[in-house]
TrEMBL record:
GO molecular function: monoatomic cation transmembrane transporter activity
The entry's keywords: Membrane, Transmembrane, Transmembrane helix, Transport
Domain Cation efflux protein cytoplasmic: 282-350
SUPFAM superfamilies named among the record's database cross-references: Cation efflux protein cytoplasmic domain-like, Cation efflux protein transmembrane domain-like
Gene3D superfamilies reported for this sequence: Cation efflux protein transmembrane domain, Cation efflux protein, cytoplasmic domain
Intracellular or extracellular location(s): Membrane
Protein's recorded name: CDF manganese transporter
PANTHER family reported for this sequence: CATION DIFFUSION FACILITATOR 1 (AFU_ORTHOLOGUE AFUA_1G14440), MITOCHONDRIAL METAL TRANSPORTER 1-RELATED
Transmembrane segments: 72-93, 99-120, 141-160, 180-203, 239-257
Segments of this protein annotated with the region Disordered: 351-371
GO terms (BP aspect): inorganic ion homeostasis; intracellular monoatomic cation homeostasis
Taxonomic lineage of the native organism: Eukaryota, Fungi, Dikarya, Basidiomycota, Agaricomycotina
Organism of provenance: Auricularia subglabra (strain TFB-10046 / SS5) (White-rot fungus)
Domain Cation efflux protein transmembrane: 76-265
């Protein structure tokens, strides 16, 4: 391979060592901001100078090393969610607490969510490439969107029901009945959720499934804690604290899933990849072969959780067709094994004065004179 060797742009000179970073940090608030920026620049420069094969092998080593941990986190979450669903539903039904009912409903949908993600992940790996040429990476994103709409709808019902109970309340007592067993059951479920949160935290970057489970456990911790407090408050202080807690929890879940839906829609709609990743692709493409005169266009955008990458390179008009094809194919193959890249497309041109590929130019039609 006639690639460009070394560091022709002198990027390595921009690296800051630990002593220089420490000196920046000691300058106060502005210095700490510069230090954080410089650490990011160090990571970017190191990524640019790292060979593409090294990027691929490092990602494979991380995935292989974390495979057992990912399985443990996944199956433990599935099993624990099933057990916690039974416990929390018992607590909600036995106490009649709306706050605990909301946490119980959330636990029921945790099982559905975990099962759906597990099934979609397996389905995506077994799709027929003739029927689904782009693969099944977007299936998990579509499943997240559908589940998000369902969670939003269910929690809207909880908000309406809790509001109705608060408005139509006619009990003479200022407090609800106290059920210690129900609160203990939910507290035990909270402890298990915390352990699952810790387990999933270490493997969330290796699997989109684990990342979704980690977010779910993270969200459940404050929700369940708040549910216990508001249920106890309704039994010891004022009855209206219980329906108020259910309304607040349901609203928080709706807002959380609204943000998740926005992010997932961006993945389906083709949101641009992070700027650092695009810079990596530009640099690696430019350094890939000495016969590349320039890089005309680089696009990287989401197709589900993975990226589609488009690169337009410029070669001399005298380059033989076989060579232009072989070099561009080699670059495409290298790009497609980078972490999180689902598909890459490399286009070869001999100049840069043309309009960008795939960009339609619409001209306004002249209105014909009226007869």
């Amino acid at each position: 391979m006639d690639s460009v060797d070394g560091d022709p742009f002198g990027l390595r000179a921009g690296l800051k060592n630990d002593s220089e970073l420490m000196a920046l940090r000691q300058r106060g608030r502005k210095g700490r901001k510069i230090e954080r920026f410089q650490r990011g620049q160090n990571k970017l420069i190191e990524a640019l100078l790292k060979p593409m094969d090294k990027h691929t092998s490092d990602a494979q080593e991380v995935a292989e090393a974390s495979r057992l941990g990912v399985k443990i986190a996944l199956y433990s979450s599935l099993g624990a969610n099933l057990a916690l669903c039974v416990v929390q539903l018992y607590a909600a039904i036995s106490s009649g607490s709306l706050s605990l009912l909301e946490t119980g409903i959330d636990s029921v949908f945790d099982i559905f969510s975990s099962g759906l993600l597990f099934w979609l992940h397996r389905k995506a790996q077994r799709l027929d490439v003739k029927e689904w040429p782009v693969g099944g990476s977007r299936l998990e994103t579509i499943g997240n969107v559908l589940f998000g709409f369902l969670m939003t709808a269910v929690n809207l019902i909880v908000v309406v029901e809790s509001t109705r109970v608060a408005i139509t309340h006619d009990k003479e007592s200022d407090v609800n009945d106290f059920h210690l067993e129900a609160l203990v059951a939910v507290a035990a479920a909270l402890g298990v959720k915390f352990l699952l949160f810790i387990v999933c935290h270490f493997f969330r970057k290796q699997s989109s499934q684990i990342e979704m489970l980690w977010e779910d456990h993270r969200n459940d911790l404050p929700m369940n804690t708040f549910g216990i407090l508001m249920s106890a408050g309704g039994s010891k202080l004022r009855w209206w604290l219980d329906p108020l807690g259910a309304i607040i929890i349901a609203t928080a879940i709706i807002l959380s899933w609204t943000r998740t839906l926005y992010r997932q829609f961006g993945l389906l709609a083709g949101r641009s990849a992070p700027h650092d990743f695009i810079q990596l692709v530009i640099y690696k493409a430019l350094m890939f072969h000495k016969d590349f005169d320039a890089i005309d266009t680089v696009r990287a955008y989401h197709s589900g959780p993975n990226y589609f990458v488009e690169v337009d390179v410029v070669m001399s008009r005298d380059t033989p067709l076989w060579k232009a094809h072989d070099v561009s194919q080699q670059l495409q193959d290298k790009l497609e094994v980078l972490p999180n890249v689902g598909r890459a497309f490399v286009h070869v041109d001999h100049e840069t004065s043309h309009h960008p590929e795939h960009q339609r130019v619409y001209e306004k039609e002249k209105r014909a004179p009226s007869p």
